[in-house]
Design goal:
The complex is a heterodimer. By secondary structure, chain A is an alpha/beta fold. Chain A contains 23 helices and 13 strands. In chain A, helix 3 runs antiparallel to helix 10 and helix 21 runs parallel beside helix 22. Chain A is globular and about 75 Å long. Chain B is α/β, with parallel strands linked by helices. Chain B has eight helices and six strands. Chain B has a six-stranded mixed sheet with strand order 2-3-1-4-5-6, with helices on both faces. In chain B, helix 5 crosses helix 7. The longest helix of chain B is centred in the N-terminal third of the chain and has 27 residues. Chain B starts with a helix and ends with a helix. The chains are: A alpha/beta, B alpha/beta. At the A-B interface, strand 2, helix 1, helix 15, helix 16 and strand 13 of A face helix 3, helix 5 and helix 7 of B.
Chain lengths: 638, 259
C-alpha cells in the first residue's frame, strides 16, 4: 500500500499530505531523499530507496517546475506498486489547477485524491489481470522493447542472407521456414509494410522453386521486386505453390498474432479492449504493454510487427521533422526575438534538448566522463521542464545558468574539508590522526603524501609517515628519501609484510612518540585486482583511519567513474563490519598538466560524493592547493 | 540592397518631417519638456538611491534542520501550517510581521529571506548578504552538541564574510526549539560556539595560504575568542518555532528595520 503522499514547495513547506493514509513513517525518508538525492543532482533517477531500522521504503517523485512544487510518494519497497507513477502524474495535474501561492491549506483536495487513487488502483488492477508479466515500470519496458526491435531488424537483415544461402543446398522444413521468416523481415524493412502479401508470395516462390532461381536470388542480393517478377514469369508450377503459400502465410500471420495474445489468459483480449475504452490516457499504457509483449516473446512475426511499427515511427518522425523544418525557417529571427521578449510559455523537453546536447558535448570536451555528463543533463532537464522562460532570455542561457548552479552545488563540499581542525580535535583526544592514501598505480600517492606532510609540518603538526607499500620494489626507499628531506620520522618494516600489520604498528608507534598525524602510504592497485583490494579493505578495517584519501590523477577521463565506484564498491563489499568505511576525500594530482580539461574533478566528486580536499599541481613540496570551485565551474562551462 | 536604399530614403524623409514638426513648436515649450524629462529621471534615481540606502532584508541562516522555514512561516502567517521538509530553494517574501498586523498605523514591511542550510546550497547566501539589514543564525538547541562543530564552522564562515564585516551587519544567534525540556540554554550554546570558533581561528588562518580564503580574521590574536570582539554586534536569544514563541526575534527585526 501507499504509505504517504506529500505535496510540498521547493521552499520546504508541506502543502498537503494524505491524512487518511496517516501511517507514521519510520525515520525521515523525505528529508533524506531531498538531501541525498534531489540536492545531489540525481533527480533524473526513477526512484530512491530509503532504509531505516524496521522499514525500507521506495520513494518516487515528480516536479512541477513552473509552480515550484514537488510531489513525493512513499511506499514499502517489497510491494511493486504499479500505479504510483500514474497516480503522481494525476495528482500533479489536478493539484496544479487548484494551487494558489497564497493559499496554504488544501483540505478539499482530500476528496479529489481519494478519487484519483481509486482510479489509479483500478487501472493498475486491470493491467495486472490482463498481463501478469508486466512487473517493471513503463519506462523500462519501453527501453527493452526498442532494443529488441533494432536487434530483430539486424537479425532479419543479416539472417536473410544466411537463409538464402542455405536454401541453395537443401530444402529441409526447418530451414525453409527460417528463410521464410527472414526474407519476410528483410523485405519488410526494405519495402515498408504495404506489400506484405506480395512479399510472402515471392517467398513462396523462393522456397518452392529450385536451385536455379535461388542462385539468381543470391546474385540479386534480395532485390525482392525483381524476384517477384521472376517468380511471376515462371508460371506453372511456381505459380501454384505461390498461391498455396500465399494463402497459408496470411493465415499463419493471424495465428501467430493470436498465439501471443492467448498466451496469458483467454479473457485477456476483452480486458485490453475495456481498458482501452475506459480512458484515453490508457492508450499510452496499452502501447507500452504491447511493446512489452514484443520484447518478451521474440516470436517470428513480432519482428515484422516491431519493424513495422518502427518504420511507422520513423516515418512519423520524418514527417514531423519535415513539417517542422519549414516552420522553423518561416519563423525566422523575428519570431524568435519576439519570443525572447515576451518569454516563452512553458519549457518543454524538446526545447531544452539542443541546448542540453551542446552543453553535454562541451562538458565532455572538458574530460567529464560521459555517463556523468549525461546524468547531469538529465537532472538539469528535470529541474527546468515546465518552467516559464523569463523575458529577454534565451533557452541556451537559461540552461547554462541552471547547469552552473548545479555544478557549484556538486563541487561545494558537503563535509568540512578543514583537516587541521580535525587534527586538533584528534590531538585533544590524545590519539594520532590517521590518513590512508589509496589509488591506482602511478597516480602520485607517495609524492603527494610528501606534499601533505610538508604542509602539515608548516603548521606545527608532528607528522609521521608509514611505509605500507610492501609490494613495489623501491617504494620504501622512495618514501625514506622524502622523509629524510623533510626531516620527518618514518615507520618501515621492509617488504613482504602484511601492510595492515605495518600500519597498525605504525599507529601504535605514533601514539608512543607523540606524533599527531600518521600518513599511511599504500601500494597502488588497479580497481579490479581482487586480492589487493581485499588487502586494502583489511588495512582500513583493522586500523579505522580518520580519513581515507583517494588519490586520482586529473588526466583520467571516463575511467574516473570506474576507478572510484569500484574502489568504493570493493571497500564496501569486502568490509567485515556492517558500516563499511568508504572514501572520505579526493586528492587530485597532476592538475598542472591538464590545462582546461578539468572534468575529472567533477566526475570524481559526482560519483563518490566526497569532496576534493587537495589539488597537486607541480613537482615541488609547495605545490599543493585547494580546489577553487568557482574557477573550475567557469572553466567547465567556458 | 535596393530595399535598404529605400529604407534609408524613408528614414531620412521621416527625419525631415520630424524636424519640421519640432520647428513649429515654440521654444519655451520645448525647454519645458526637456526640463520635465530631466526632473523625472533625477527623481527616479533619487528614489532608488534612498531605497538602497535603507535595506529592509533580514536573512535567516543556520544548519539544515534547525527550523528556519518554520520560523519564516511563523513570522509571516503566525502558523507552521502542516510542517516542513528540507528546503531546496530559499523562501523569500516581503510582508508585515504577523504579530504586528493588529497594530494601527503605517508599518514598513520587512523582506525576510530563509536561506536553506544544506551545505550545497550555501553559496546562495552570498546573494542576499549584501542587502541584509541583519542576519539571524538559527541554532538547534535541542540537538546542539552533535552539530556543534558544523554550526560553528558555518558561523565562522558567516562572520568572516567580507560583506558582513565591512557593513557591520548585526547578527542574532537564535537558539530554536527551547520549548523542549532537554534543550540547552543560550549561555551554554554561546560558550560552546565561542570555544569552537577559537579553535577554528587557528586552523582556518593556516588554510588561508591556499587559494580559498576567508577575507577577514576574527577576534584579537592572543586572546580567547568571544563574540564581543566582532566588529558587528552579536547577540543571543531564545525562540521556539513550533509553539510560536518568537517575540525576541521580532524585536530584533524591528530594531534593525524600523517600522
Amino acid at each position: 500500500m501507499l504509505e504517504q503522499l506529500l505535496i510540498f514547495t521547493r521552499g520546504g513547506l508541506i502543502l498537503w499530505s494524505c491524512k487518511e493514509l496517516g501511517n507514521a513513517l519510520k525515520g525521515s525518508p523525505i528529508d533524506t531523499l531531498i538531501r541525498s538525492c534531489l540536492l545531489e543532482e540525481r533527480s533524473g533517477a526513477a526512484s530512491y530507496n530509503y532504509d531505516a531500522p524496521g522499514a525500507s521504503y521506495s520513494l518516487k517523485w515528480i516536479f512541477h517546475n513552473d509552480l515550484g512544487l514537488v510531489f513525493v510518494a512513499v511506499y514499502q519497497r517489497i510491494l511493486h506498486l504499479l500505479y504510483v507513477e500514474d497516480l503522481l502524474a494525476a495528482v500533479k495535474r489536478e493539484f496544479s489547477q487548484v494551487y494558489d501561492p497564497s493559499r496554504m491549506v488544501y483540505r478539499d483536495f482530500d476528496e479529489v485524491f481519494k478519487q484519483l487513487k481509486i482510479e489509479a488502483e483500478a487501472r493498475a488492477e486491470d493491467l495486472k489481470k490482463s498481463n501478469p508479466v508486466v512487473v517493471n515500470g513503463n519506462r523500462k519496458s519501453q527501453v527493452t522493447w526498442k532494443g529488441d526491435g533494432s536487434e530483430g531488424k539486424k537479425n532479419g537483415a543479416g539472417g536473410g542472407g544466411g537463409g538464402g544461402l542455405k536454401n541453395d543446398g537443401d530444402g529441409k522444413n526447418g530451414i525453409k521456414s527460417e528463410s521464410d521468416r527472414f526474407v519476410v523481415a528483410n523485405g519488410n524493412s526494405a519495402n515498408g509494410n504495404n506489400n506484405n502479401g506480395s512479399n510472402l508470395k515471392s517467398n513462396g516462390g523462393n522456397v518452392s522453386v529450385n536451385d536455379k532461381d535461388n542462385d539468381s536470388l543470391n546474385n540479386g542480393a534480395f532485390d525482392v521486386n525483381r524476384l517477384q517478377k521472376k517468380v511471376r514469369n515462371k508460371g506453372g508450377n511456381g505459380k501454384k505453390t505461390d498461391s498455396v503459400v500465399s494463402k497459408a502465410e496470411p493465415k499463419k500471420l493471424v495465428k501467430k498474432n493470436r498465439v501471443w495474445d492467448e498466451k496469458p489468459k483467454e479473457t485477456k483480449l476483452d480486458f485490453t479492449d475495456k481498458v482501452d475504452v475506459d480512458r484515453d490516457a490508457d492508450l499510452d499504457r496499452k502501447v507500452d504493454y504491447l511493446a512489452k509483449e514484443q520484447g518478451e516473446s521474440m516470436m517470428d512475426k513480432d519482428e515484422i510487427l516491431s519493424s513495422d511499427s518502427e518504420d511507422e515511427e520513423e516515418d512519423g518522425d520524418d514527417a514531423g521533422k519535415n513539417s517542422n523544418k519549414p516552420d522553423a525557417k518561416k519563423k525566422g529571427w523575428f519570431s524568435s526575438m519576439f519570443q525572447s521578449i515576451a518569454g516563452k510559455a512553458n519549457l518543454e523537453k524538446s526545447d531544452l534538448e539542443p541546448a542540453l546536447k551542446a552543453l553535454k558535448d562541451r562538458l565532455m570536451t572538458k574530460n567529464v566522463a560521459e555517463e556523468i555528463a549525461e546524468k547531469l543533463c538529465e537532472s538539469v532537464a528535470a529541474s527546468l521542464e515546465g518552467k516559464k522562460l523569463a523575458s529577454f532570455t534565451r533557452i541556451s542561457s537559461t540552461v547554462h545558468t541552471a547547469m552552473e548552479e548545479a555544478l557549484v552545488r556538486i563541487l561545494t563540499p558537503r563535509r568540512s574539508i578543514d583537516i587541521l581542525r580535525d587534527v586538533h580535535a584528534a590531538k585533544e583526544q590524545r590519539k594520532p590522526y590517521v590518513v590512508v592514501f589509496v589509488g591506482v598505480n602511478g597516480v602520485g600517492k607517495s609524492t603527494n603524501l610528501a606534499k601533505v606532510a610538508y604542509w602539515l609540518q608548516q603548521h606545527n603538526v608532528n607528522v609521521m609517515m608509514a611505509a605500507c607499500d610492501t609490494f613495489r620494489s623501491g617504494a620504501v626507499e622512495q618514501l625514506r628519501t622524502h622523509a629524510r628531506r623533510l626531516q620527518i620520522p618514518i615507520f618501515e618494516k621492509g617488504y613482504e609484510k602484511d601492510p595492515a600489520i605495518v600500519a597498525k604498528e605504525a599507529i601504535q608507534e605514533a601514539s608512543r612518540n607523540g606524533s599527531d598525524v600518521v600518513l599511511v602510504d599504500t601500494a597502488g592497485r588497479m580497481q579490479d585486482n581482487e586480492p589487493l583490494m581485499r588487502a586494502l579493505s583489511k588495512l582500513i578495517y583493522l586500523n579505522n583511519p580518520d580519513l581515507v584519501l583517494f588519490v586520482g590523477e586529473a588526466l583520467v577521463g571516463n575511467d574516473a567513474v570506474d576507478q572510484l565506484s569500484k574502489f568504493n564498491q570493493k571497500l564496501a563489499d569486502l568490509a567485515s563490519s556492517p558500516t563499511p568505511r568508504l572514501i572520505d576525500g579526493i586528492l587530485l594530482t597532476k592538475f598542472d598538466t591538464i590545462d582546461d580539461k578539468v572534468g575529472a574533478a567533477l566526475s570524481m566528486v559526482y560519483i563518490s560524493g566526497a569532496p576534493v580536499m587537495f589539488v597537486g599541481c607541480g613537482q615541488s613540496y609547495t605545490d599543493l592547493k585547494k580546489l577553487n570551485v568557482k574557477s573550475i565551474v567557469k572553466t567547465l562551462l567556458k | 540592397m535596393q530595399e535598404l536604399d529605400q529604407w534609408k530614403e524613408q528614414i531620412s524623409h521621416l527625419l525631415n518631417v520630424a524636424n519640421d514638426h519640432i520647428r513649429e513648436i515654440p521654444t519655451d515649450q520645448l525647454y519645458a519638456a526637456a526640463a520635465i524629462a530631466v526632473f523625472t529621471t533625477l527623481l527616479l534615481l533619487l528614489l532608488r538611491f534612498f531605497k538602497r540606502s535603507k535595506p529592509n532584508t533580514i536573512v535567516l541562516t543556520g544548519l539544515s534542520g534547525s527550523g528556519k522555514t518554520v520560523l519564516f512561516y511563523q513570522l509571516r502567517d503566525g502558523s507552521t501550517h502542516q510542517g516542513t521538509v528540507t528546503s531546496m530553494e530559499p523562501n523569500e517574501d516581503t510582508f508585515i510581521l504577523h504579530g504586528e498586523t493588529t497594530k494601527k498605523g503605517k508599518i514598513k514591511p520587512v523582506h525576510i529571506v530563509d536561506v536553506p542550510g544544506h551545505s550545497r546550497l550555501r553559496p546562495k547566501l552570498d546573494e542576499y548578504l549584501p542587502q541584509a539589514a541583519g542576519t539571524v543564525f538559527v541554532v538547534d538547541a535541542l540537538d546542539f552538541l552533535p552539530n556543534c562543530r558544523a554550526a560553528s564552522e558555518y558561523l565562522y564562515d558567516l562572520l568572516t564574510k567580507g560583506s558582513v564585516v565591512r557593513k557591520k551587519i548585526p547578527l542574532l544567534i537564535l537558539c530554536n526549539k527551547t520549548d523542549k525540556v532537554t534543550a540547552h540554554t543560550k549561555e551554554f550554546i554561546c560558550r560552546q560556539l565561542e570555544k569552537e570558533i577559537d579553535k577554528l581561528r587557528v586552523s582556518r588562518s593556516a588554510v588561508s595560504d591556499a587559494d580559498v580564503t576567508n577575507e577577514f580574521t576574527l577576534g584579537v590574536p592572543g586572546e580567547p575568542f568571544s563574540f564581543k570582539q566582532c566588529s558587528n554586534t552579536v547577540i543571543t536569544a531564545d525562540a521556539s518555532g513550533l509553539t510560536g514563541e518568537i517575540s525576541q526575534l521580532e524585536e530584533f527585526i524591528r530594531q534593525h528595520v524600523k517600522p
